[in-house]
Amino acid sequence: MVWEGSAGLYMRALCVALYVALAASFTQPRDSEFTFILPAGRIECFYQKTEKNVSMEVEYQVIAGAGMDVDFSISSPQGVILYTDFRRSDGMHTIDSTDEGDYQLCFDNTFSKFSEKMVFFEVIFDSPQEGQDDWSQMVPPEELLDYKLEDIRESIESTWNRLERSVQIQTVLRAFEARDRNLQEDNLWRVTFWSATNMLVLVIVALVQVYMLRSLFDDKRRVRT
Protein backbone atom coordinates (compact mmCIF):
# COMPACT_ATOMS: atom_id res chain seq x y z
CA MET A 1 0.00 0.00 0.00
CA VAL A 2 2.88 2.35 0.75
CA TRP A 3 4.38 1.59 -2.67
CA GLU A 4 1.04 2.24 -4.36
CA GLY A 5 0.65 5.55 -2.57
CA SER A 6 4.17 6.63 -3.53
CA ALA A 7 3.64 5.57 -7.14
CA GLY A 8 0.33 7.45 -7.33
CA LEU A 9 1.92 10.57 -5.85
CA TYR A 10 4.84 10.23 -8.24
CA MET A 11 2.53 9.91 -11.24
CA ARG A 12 0.48 12.94 -10.18
CA ALA A 13 3.63 15.03 -9.83
CA LEU A 14 4.87 13.87 -13.21
CA CYS A 15 1.52 14.75 -14.84
CA VAL A 16 1.64 18.21 -13.27
CA ALA A 17 5.18 18.69 -14.58
CA LEU A 18 4.20 17.65 -18.09
CA TYR A 19 1.17 19.94 -18.00
CA VAL A 20 3.33 22.90 -16.95
CA ALA A 21 5.85 22.13 -19.68
CA LEU A 22 3.14 21.86 -22.34
CA ALA A 23 1.49 25.07 -21.20
CA ALA A 24 4.82 26.88 -21.34
CA SER A 25 5.53 25.54 -24.82
CA PHE A 26 2.21 26.91 -26.12
CA THR A 27 2.68 30.36 -24.60
CA GLN A 28 6.28 30.88 -25.71
CA PRO A 29 7.03 32.02 -29.28
CA ARG A 30 8.00 29.16 -31.55
CA ASP A 31 11.15 28.88 -33.67
CA SER A 32 10.59 29.44 -37.36
CA GLU A 33 12.46 29.22 -40.65
CA PHE A 34 11.61 30.47 -44.11
CA THR A 35 13.04 30.52 -47.64
CA PHE A 36 11.79 33.09 -50.15
CA ILE A 37 12.62 34.83 -53.44
CA LEU A 38 13.65 38.50 -53.12
CA PRO A 39 13.00 40.21 -56.49
CA ALA A 40 15.41 42.75 -57.95
CA GLY A 41 14.87 46.29 -56.71
CA ARG A 42 12.55 45.19 -53.88
CA ILE A 43 12.44 45.21 -50.08
CA GLU A 44 10.74 42.37 -48.19
CA CYS A 45 9.93 42.73 -44.48
CA PHE A 46 8.74 40.09 -42.01
CA TYR A 47 7.28 40.59 -38.53
CA GLN A 48 8.03 38.30 -35.61
CA LYS A 49 5.90 38.56 -32.47
CA THR A 50 7.87 38.17 -29.23
CA GLU A 51 7.29 38.20 -25.51
CA LYS A 52 9.17 40.22 -22.96
CA ASN A 53 12.62 39.17 -21.70
CA VAL A 54 13.31 36.27 -24.07
CA SER A 55 16.39 35.71 -26.19
CA MET A 56 15.89 35.88 -29.97
CA GLU A 57 18.52 34.80 -32.49
CA VAL A 58 18.15 35.64 -36.20
CA GLU A 59 20.35 34.00 -38.83
CA TYR A 60 20.12 34.47 -42.61
CA GLN A 61 21.90 33.30 -45.76
CA VAL A 62 21.65 34.19 -49.44
CA ILE A 63 21.66 30.83 -51.21
CA ALA A 64 21.11 31.88 -54.84
CA GLY A 65 21.38 34.93 -57.07
CA ALA A 66 24.09 37.04 -58.65
CA GLY A 67 26.47 38.46 -56.07
CA MET A 68 24.96 36.41 -53.23
CA ASP A 69 24.40 39.53 -51.12
CA VAL A 70 21.56 41.60 -49.61
CA ASP A 71 21.07 44.40 -47.11
CA PHE A 72 19.48 43.38 -43.80
CA SER A 73 18.08 45.20 -40.79
CA ILE A 74 16.25 44.41 -37.53
CA SER A 75 13.92 46.97 -35.93
CA SER A 76 12.41 46.84 -32.44
CA PRO A 77 8.65 47.14 -31.75
CA GLN A 78 9.31 50.85 -31.03
CA GLY A 79 10.76 51.33 -34.54
CA VAL A 80 14.41 51.57 -33.45
CA ILE A 81 16.89 49.92 -35.86
CA LEU A 82 18.97 47.48 -33.80
CA TYR A 83 21.19 45.82 -36.43
CA THR A 84 22.05 46.67 -40.02
CA ASP A 85 24.09 44.72 -42.59
CA PHE A 86 25.14 46.01 -46.02
CA ARG A 87 25.85 43.75 -49.00
CA ARG A 88 26.28 40.60 -46.91
CA SER A 89 25.80 37.00 -48.00
CA ASP A 90 25.05 35.77 -44.46
CA GLY A 91 24.77 37.00 -40.92
CA MET A 92 23.61 36.20 -37.40
CA HIS A 93 22.31 38.57 -34.71
CA THR A 94 21.14 37.92 -31.15
CA ILE A 95 18.83 40.03 -29.00
CA ASP A 96 19.40 38.97 -25.41
CA SER A 97 16.31 40.56 -23.86
CA THR A 98 13.41 41.33 -26.17
CA ASP A 99 10.51 43.71 -25.70
CA GLU A 100 6.93 42.59 -26.11
CA GLY A 101 5.66 43.29 -29.61
CA ASP A 102 6.52 42.72 -33.26
CA TYR A 103 10.12 42.84 -34.43
CA GLN A 104 10.66 43.82 -38.08
CA LEU A 105 13.14 41.84 -40.21
CA CYS A 106 13.83 43.51 -43.58
CA PHE A 107 15.80 42.24 -46.58
CA ASP A 108 16.79 44.88 -49.15
CA ASN A 109 17.70 44.12 -52.78
CA THR A 110 17.13 47.61 -54.21
CA PHE A 111 20.80 47.94 -55.21
CA SER A 112 20.34 45.10 -57.73
CA LYS A 113 18.33 46.08 -60.80
CA PHE A 114 18.27 42.74 -62.64
CA SER A 115 19.13 39.85 -60.31
CA GLU A 116 16.71 38.29 -57.83
CA LYS A 117 17.99 36.53 -54.70
CA MET A 118 16.90 33.42 -52.84
CA VAL A 119 17.18 34.03 -49.10
CA PHE A 120 16.90 31.63 -46.16
CA PHE A 121 16.47 32.81 -42.58
CA GLU A 122 15.50 31.33 -39.24
CA VAL A 123 14.42 32.77 -35.90
CA ILE A 124 15.33 30.90 -32.71
CA PHE A 125 13.98 31.69 -29.24
CA ASP A 126 15.51 30.79 -25.89
CA SER A 127 13.22 31.63 -22.97
CA PRO A 128 14.52 31.90 -19.41
CA GLN A 129 13.80 28.82 -17.37
CA GLU A 130 11.73 30.01 -14.43
CA GLY A 131 9.88 28.00 -11.86
CA GLN A 132 11.16 24.65 -13.04
CA ASP A 133 12.18 23.51 -9.58
CA ASP A 134 8.79 24.21 -7.98
CA TRP A 135 7.09 21.04 -9.15
CA SER A 136 9.95 18.83 -7.95
CA GLN A 137 9.23 19.95 -4.37
CA MET A 138 5.71 18.49 -4.47
CA VAL A 139 7.00 15.00 -3.65
CA PRO A 140 9.25 14.43 -0.63
CA PRO A 141 12.61 12.85 -1.57
CA GLU A 142 12.04 9.78 0.59
CA GLU A 143 8.84 8.88 -1.26
CA LEU A 144 10.36 8.77 -4.74
CA LEU A 145 10.85 5.45 -6.49
CA ASP A 146 14.14 4.41 -8.03
CA TYR A 147 14.81 7.73 -9.77
CA LYS A 148 14.51 11.27 -8.61
CA LEU A 149 12.27 13.67 -10.46
CA GLU A 150 15.16 16.09 -10.69
CA ASP A 151 17.30 13.55 -12.51
CA ILE A 152 14.46 12.72 -14.91
CA ARG A 153 13.82 16.40 -15.60
CA GLU A 154 17.49 17.12 -16.28
CA SER A 155 17.75 14.11 -18.56
CA ILE A 156 14.63 15.11 -20.54
CA GLU A 157 15.78 18.74 -20.82
CA SER A 158 19.26 17.71 -21.95
CA THR A 159 17.86 15.39 -24.61
CA TRP A 160 15.37 18.00 -25.80
CA ASN A 161 18.03 20.73 -26.02
CA ARG A 162 20.34 18.46 -28.00
CA LEU A 163 17.54 17.53 -30.39
CA GLU A 164 16.66 21.18 -30.94
CA ARG A 165 20.30 22.04 -31.54
CA SER A 166 20.63 19.15 -33.99
CA VAL A 167 17.59 20.36 -35.94
CA GLN A 168 19.01 23.90 -36.09
CA ILE A 169 22.42 22.70 -37.28
CA GLN A 170 20.85 20.47 -39.93
CA THR A 171 18.72 23.37 -41.16
CA VAL A 172 21.79 25.61 -41.48
CA LEU A 173 23.71 22.85 -43.24
CA ARG A 174 20.85 22.40 -45.72
CA ALA A 175 21.01 26.11 -46.48
CA PHE A 176 24.77 25.91 -47.01
CA GLU A 177 24.27 22.88 -49.25
CA ALA A 178 21.69 24.70 -51.39
CA ARG A 179 23.98 27.71 -51.66
CA ASP A 180 26.99 25.59 -52.70
CA ARG A 181 24.88 23.69 -55.23
CA ASN A 182 23.68 26.92 -56.83
CA LEU A 183 27.26 28.20 -56.99
CA GLN A 184 28.45 24.97 -58.61
CA GLU A 185 25.65 25.06 -61.18
CA ASP A 186 26.47 28.68 -62.00
CA ASN A 187 30.18 27.90 -62.30
CA LEU A 188 29.43 24.84 -64.45
CA TRP A 189 27.46 26.99 -66.89
CA ARG A 190 30.30 29.50 -67.12
CA VAL A 191 32.94 26.81 -67.63
CA THR A 192 30.85 25.10 -70.31
CA PHE A 193 30.20 28.39 -72.14
CA TRP A 194 33.82 29.51 -72.21
CA SER A 195 35.07 26.02 -73.08
CA ALA A 196 32.71 25.93 -76.07
CA THR A 197 33.81 29.44 -77.07
CA ASN A 198 37.50 28.54 -76.90
CA MET A 199 36.90 25.35 -78.88
CA LEU A 200 35.09 27.32 -81.60
CA VAL A 201 37.94 29.84 -81.78
CA LEU A 202 40.50 27.03 -82.08
CA VAL A 203 38.54 25.43 -84.92
CA ILE A 204 38.29 28.74 -86.79
CA VAL A 205 42.03 29.41 -86.34
CA ALA A 206 42.86 25.91 -87.57
CA LEU A 207 40.72 26.36 -90.68
CA VAL A 208 42.34 29.74 -91.40
CA GLN A 209 45.82 28.23 -91.04
CA VAL A 210 44.99 25.36 -93.41
CA TYR A 211 43.60 27.82 -95.96
CA MET A 212 46.71 30.01 -95.74
CA LEU A 213 49.08 27.04 -96.11
CA ARG A 214 47.21 25.78 -99.16
CA SER A 215 47.28 29.22 -100.69
CA LEU A 216 51.07 29.38 -100.29
CA PHE A 217 51.61 26.15 -102.24
CA ASP A 218 49.00 26.86 -104.88
CA ASP A 219 50.73 27.60 -108.26
CA LYS A 220 48.79 30.39 -109.83
CA ARG A 221 51.08 30.76 -112.87
CA ARG A 222 49.45 30.02 -116.17
CA VAL A 223 51.19 27.76 -118.63
CA ARG A 224 51.79 29.57 -121.96
CA THR A 225 51.14 27.69 -125.16
Outline the secondary-structure elements.
Blueprint: H1 2-27, E1 32-38, E2 43-50, E3 55-64, E4 70-75, E5 81-88, E6 90-95, E7 101-108, E8 117-126, H2 149-217
Antiparallel strand pairs: 1-8, 2-7, 3-6, 3-8, 4-5, 4-7
Order of H and E elements = HEEEEEEEEH
Number of domains as seen in the coordinates: 3
Question: Can you identify the CATH class of the largest domain?
Answer: Mainly Beta
Total beta strand runs:
8
Task: Report, as a whole number of angstroms, the end-to-end distance.
Answer: 138 Å
Organism: Erpetoichthys calabaricus (Rope fish)
Transmembrane segments: 191-213
Domain GOLD: 43-125
InterPro entries: Emp24-like (IPR015720), GOLD_dom (IPR009038), GOLD_dom_sf (IPR036598)
Report on the structure:
Pfam families: EMP24_GP25L (PF01105). With 225 residues, the protein is of the alpha+beta class. The protein has three domains: 1-28 and 132-146, no CATH class; 30-126, Jelly Rolls (Sandwich), CATH 2.60.120; 148-217. The protein has helices at residues 2-27, 149-217; strands at residues 32-38, 43-50, 55-64, 70-75, 81-88, 90-95, 101-108, 117-126. The chain is elongated and about 100 Å long.
Notable traits:
Jelly Rolls; four-stranded antiparallel β-sheet; 225 residues; elongated; Transmembrane p24 trafficking protein 1b; 8 strands; transmembrane; 3 domains
Short description:
The chain is of the alpha+beta class and 225 residues long.
